[in-house]
Fold these 2 entries.
Entry 1:
Amino acid sequence: MNATFALIGNPNTGKTSLFNALTGSYQYVGNWSGVTVEKKVGTLHHNMGTLVDLPGIYTMNPISADEAVVSNYLLEEPTTPVLNIIDTSQLKRNLHVTIQLLERNRNVLLCLNMIDVANERGIYVDNNRLSSLLNIDVTPIIARKEQGIDNIFHGLNQLHKSTTPLVLYYGSIVEKGITSIEKKLSDLNGDINTRWLAIQYLQGNRQIENKLSSSNCEIAKIRDDTEKQLQFKEGNITLAYHIMNVRETFIQSIVDQVITIKKEPKVFMSEKIDQIVTNKFLGIPIFLFLMYMIFMVTFNWIGFPLSDLLDVFLTDMVAVWFENVLAILQVNPFIESVILEGIIGGVGGVLVFTPQIFILFFCLSLLEDSGYMARITVVMDRFMQAMGLNGKAFIPLIIGFGCNVPGIMAARSIEQERDRLITMVMLPFMSCSARLPVYALFISVFFKENQALIALSLYVLGIVIALLLAKILTSTTFKKEKSLFIMELPPYRMPQWRTLWRATWEKGKGFIRKAGTFIFGGSVIIWLLTYMGPGGIDVPMDESYLAQIGAYIAPFLAPLGFGTWQAASSLLTGFLAKEVVVSTMSIIYAAPEVQMQGLLAEYFSPLTAYGFMTFILLYVPCLATVAVMKQETHSIKWTMFAILYGLVMAYIVTFLIIQCGRILGIA
Amino acid sequence: MNIAQLKENEVAIVECFSTVDQLIKDRLMQLGIYPNQEICLLRKLPFGGPCIIGTCGQCICIRLYDAKGIEVKKK
Amino acid sequence: MISWVIGIVIFGYAAWTLIQHARKSYKGKCAACELRKYCEEDCESPNNYNDKNLLGK
């Protein structure tokens, strides 16, 4: 069967949880509005066809970029059956989307999600009644616990193909407007419901406006006339408000018939937690304390001990085993060298830091799944306001600690284009997990005492530089517009181990996969460049091609304290992906007798090591980030700006750190 | 009076949006805050920080400036 | 002989991964998406940054 179904509903109602349950695939879930910012496609179980997961919407009319994806999809695919998921505890608000879907056609299956949460709050819904009132099938489910999933498959099979849409009466004036617009649209081919189009147009749906741009003048006039007549009759209200009000009245009549409230609302757990974490005085300290704890766990308490164990395993067991096998096979020295020094050195050097990366992802998943993420935006909004931005920008920035690419994508849920653009340009300064191995390496050599503190200082430095950029942009280029902020605070949820583990694994898996693919490839090429030189093959490393390339750049880095060809060529490879920096260093600084750590101590002092880490933090975004930034900003100018600002800031800040350090007498 | 003038945990009925930005107004409507709706001011953050308001079992956070633009009547 | 085989496998695989990586990153996220048919439009945000409405609304 080749059917396609679309999954649509309010933000944060569990669409992605349901998507994962129905398709057995894994997509990223979190507890705030706007986790899904683009379409995702999965294959349904039982060979039922495919399911498309769409971003959450409150109404068809898009305000932010992610919401526009849904309107577009409904326009392009007028006959696709829809799986409409709603949060049962917020029935009234959720039904607005349902009504608009039904006005399009009745090919809709309604899922009442989170019935457990609703029941806890004393809200009970009569499914059968709701089903007969709306004339569609209704299935109660608990997506997070995967309860009621089989009923959905059953329901999707039963989905009747009748397309008689719901018709609400919007009053004589608006109805006249709808009919006139419908006439203008009569030559529009395809299966699209013209009444739905007309209503959406009257309501001011921007996406529909773009679609109908050919006959724009005439229908725009109809809309203006309708609004004027309406205001003449009803007083000072907008057309959009009137249409919403008609739906609201209809929904209220339904809700009154299907909902029974069995107990009085009391103070919920969420509210109690909020009293503490969004407390007037404790809010910001609690946030900073939690961030500090994340770094302690990632670096000091669990990360490094595990990383050390892995290092011992790789050097003492894996490397030795390969050496023996290669000796038995009697391969030539060239192959032996590429495997032992290139691959095991380069890939192993990065893989050692897998524990830290997994722990960091686990902590981030915990923040995302619990619902605390939305509170961070509230607590930090006042501060962000001073920077000319809004608190919502914090979500993409924190996601950026994992990887900058999804961070830039997450910025789609920011309503204002201005704030969204600034957030995207700030993102490369969020120290992503790929930069973490570099810190972990240097910290383990030079800063054994204060591991977490040094790491934290780098992350904070990144944030400060990013905020500085925001401040500059908002007080110059974007001075005219002010930032806006509105955020829905979802209820807290007890994070589920399964969800957390899957989220951590899916993100961490990417790191291991990279180690097996392009970090492998990069290591081999870099090794080759160190093995060959103008003088032939198997040259001393100082005479290799890599040394020559690095030597061109090294003089520019001399004022920063690390003007060696080794440092220069490591930085150069980082543009491909930041992980490769550590691979390069593992290959370059590998000497048969001494450990890399020992050799590093010869080339760097604690001060220049810190400077080098700062430079890595700030200098240029990786290739993938640049590509996604160009795609999301639609602007080469802004992408180039982000790269150049990074390079300039990296140079200035590192220079200042090194020079101040020297003046203060730190070696 | 407006939302910002309410005390914490005070309940009021929304009368109109006077100076609220259009984008915020649209979003508030979508979230179910419009004239004649009952709302409750849950918390005001210090130094002119945002306000958290509750309605129909959901929490919404808006800036003080916008809260000042929403006219309400005490219940 | 065995050296040749291992050598070809290693360098072949290395070249392939690098080409893949460069291609995927350069294309960005949308091009790799399964629903490219609609995606080409969806990837455009409703307000293009090159539009004039960015500064004066």
Entry 2:
Amino acid sequence: MMWKEKYRVGAVLIDTQHQELFKRVSSFISIVQSPRLWDEKVEEVKETLAFMQEYVVIHFSDEERFQEEIGYPERERHRAIHSQFRGVIQNYVNRVAQEGYTQELMQELGGRLMTWLIMHVAGEDQKIGEFLRSQGGGHES
Amino acid sequence: MRAEYINAFYLATQDVFRIMLDLETNRSGLRVTEELVPFLEANVVIGVTGDLTGSLLYSFPKEMALEMVKIMSGMEMDELDAFVTSAMGELANIISGNALTRLSQQNYNCNIVPPQIMVGGGRSLSMATPQAIVLSLETAIGNFDITISLTDRS
């Protein structure tokens, strides 16, 4: 289980989405790392990757909208961090187009995505929580 | 090489290990080396450009790298495959980025080159400086080294 309670930000929407995102990243990694022949699981790898990728896009955009709504002062910097990471993902999309869904490429993407996401949620996103608390508490939406 | 470089890497490592792995890191040694040689099994090399140029080498024992990725993923890991080494590369990338952010507050503006992974040690790497500093760190799950070879161009 990748999700830890300490990752909570204190806003229901963001925390729920983070949990879903961690769940999708986790199921992608579980399939990639499962001890089955690559050819037998590659279709499942593609499905879980698409499922996860779709949610990264939804979550980044919802989180950016949320930051606008609450007037989060660091929203531009945060948006730039998201945008930089979208670029990293796009780079993998381009590599998949050239190299195909190889085991090594999918493992590389999984390792990078997991680590980046944990640091982002446990580090950068916690500042949203700190801001909310400084404004008088958590957020219900 | 100045002490502030070393401290920036130490503090960044401490922060990242606390945030991501819930682990405390303590300095266990500091020594000078004339060679950049990865002695341990899981190694990440990161290039630095800008006001400071050179290389950073993060060297972890295999068992420690596997345990770190297990803490992050919640899954058992048994080999240094592309998933584990990629996670280690990103972790070293994050530590280096945070250290350079600290150094930018002292007016050193630098960038990092994407990590290069090396499994297994022994091969000597080229260095930007005649001497490098090896920062040895200990944690509850193992000990590791960060070798810092940076030259000041500012």
